[in-house]
């Protein structure tokens, strides 16, 4: 009964398969679908976005600020990843991006992550207030994260004053 998002990771064979899958998700509490088609298939994503009610979010299709400026109209939003776009400054620019005034729909900005340690996520998390959704769960998906100092407690990001190596050694 909880709302959720689905990252299809370019897994649909074609736009028709993606449309059928996404239409099935509409009966549940799915809030957004990320990257159903190949990264280069912008026209397929445009077609899909015109046919389903769940917002389609770009991930691999939009890697940096130039891609965002060129293709933002195709998608209902973008997943910005510090490691993907080239750093904090570039991610900040992407999260501050404003769609044209003629575009009346909201543009959803997700702050995401790759397979990163607490050190990377701690750094990325300073940009969370600029996003609509923060998906920074990577440290929870790794059994060998050597760092501590970042947590998600009841849906809220909590950071210590600094990141430490487990065992107490401070990095700053």
Structural class comes to alpha/beta
Largest sheet: 6 strands, parallel
Q: Tell me the radius of gyration.
A: 17 Å
Q: What is the helix fraction of residues, given as a range?
A: 25-40%
Please write the string of helix (H) and strand (E) elements: EHEHEHEHHEHEEEE
Q: Major sheet: order of its strands? A: 1-2-3-4-5-6
Overall body shape = globular
Question: Unreliable stretches, pLDDT < 50, 5 or more residues?
Answer: none
User: What is the average of the pLDDT values?
Assistant: 93
Q: Count of DSSP helices?
A: 6
Oligomeric composition of the shown chains: single chain
**DSSP strand (E) fraction?**
25-35%
Distance from N terminus to C terminus (CA atoms, Å) equals 42 Å
Structure summary, number of beta strands = 9
Task: Summarize this structure as a short list of keywords or feature phrases.
172 residues, alpha/beta, 6-stranded parallel β-sheet, 3-stranded antiparallel β-sheet, 6 helices, 26% helix, 25% strand
């Amino acid at each position: 009964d909880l709302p959720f998002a689905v990252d299809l990771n370019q897994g649909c064979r074609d736009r028709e398969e993606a449309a059928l899958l996404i239409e099935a998700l509409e009966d549940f509490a799915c809030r957004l679908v990320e990257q159903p088609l190949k990264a280069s298939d912008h026209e397929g994503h445009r077609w899909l976005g015109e046919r389903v009610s769940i917002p389609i979010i770009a991930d691999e299709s939009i890697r940096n600020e130039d891609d965002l400026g060129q293709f933002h109209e195709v998608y209902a939003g973008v997943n910005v990843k510090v490691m993907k776009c080239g750093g904090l400054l570039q991610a900040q620019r992407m999260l501050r991006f404003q769609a044209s005034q003629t575009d009346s729909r909201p543009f959803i900005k997700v702050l995401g992550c790759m397979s990163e340690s607490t050190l990377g996520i701690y750094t990325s998390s300073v940009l969370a207030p600029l996003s609509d959704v923060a998906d920074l769960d990577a440290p929870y998906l790794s059994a060998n994260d050597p760092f501590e100092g970042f947590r998600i407690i009841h849906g809220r990001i909590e950071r210590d004053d600094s990141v430490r190596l487990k065992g107490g050694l401070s990095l700053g």
